[in-house]
């Protein structure tokens, strides 16, 4: 019986799951994609092109994040303080009270990949 209890936590070769170390860029991008799908997709859309379901309600439309020319620090400022904090759309809400510093950093890592790869944000 003890052998069964001790063997249970170990997965077979077929069940093995890749676990990324927490402090890698890949891990940050994965966590950022989760934050994006939770907080951003409604306006910016699944591909980041500013064509989410709520986008048509706003003028100006949400930014196309796949072509954003802004550096990471500026993106952090927009996410943290919202559009008005940096002279942009009043419809971009501030997420600084909702997201942790790590979540904002992870989100920016994800946006960097969306921009670089041109891949969907799903």
Task: Quickly list its features.
122 residues, mainly alpha, 5 helices
3D architecture notes:
It is a single chain. This protein is mainly alpha-helical. It has a domain at 22-39 and 69-117. Helices cover 43% and strands 0% of the residues. The protein has 5 helices and no strands. It starts with a helix and ends in a 5-residue tail after the last helix.
Please specify the SSE layout and strand pairing:
Blueprint lengths: L1 H6 L17 H15 L1 H4 L27 H10 L19 H17 L5
In short:
The protein is mainly alpha-helical. It is 43% helix and 0% strand.
Number of separate strands: 0
Largest sheet: number of strands, sense, barrel closure? none
For the termini, the CA-CA separation is: 44 Å
Mean pLDDT: 86
Structural class determined from secondary elements: mainly alpha
* Discrete helix count: 5
Cα gyration radius (Å): 18 Å
Topology as H/E string?
Answer: HHHHH
Measured by DSSP, the beta-strand proportion falls in: under 5%
Helix content: 40-55%
State the shape: globular
- Point out poorly predicted stretches: 1-11
């Amino acid at each position: 019986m003890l052998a069964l209890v001790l063997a249970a936590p170990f997965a077979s070769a077929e069940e093995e799951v890749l676990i990324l170390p927490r402090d890698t860029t890949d891990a940050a991008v994965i966590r950022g994609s989760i934050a994006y799908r939770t907080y951003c997709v409604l306006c910016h859309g699944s591909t980041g092109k500013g064509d989410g379901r709520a986008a048509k309600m706003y003028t100006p439309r949400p930014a196309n994040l796949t072509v954003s020319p802004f550096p990471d620090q500026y993106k952090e400022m927009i996410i943290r303080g919202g559009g008005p904090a940096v002279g942009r759309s009043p419809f971009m809400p501030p997420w600084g009270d909702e997201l942790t510093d790590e979540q904002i950093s992870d989100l920016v890592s994800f946006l960097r990949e969306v921009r670089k790869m041109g891949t969907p944000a799903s």
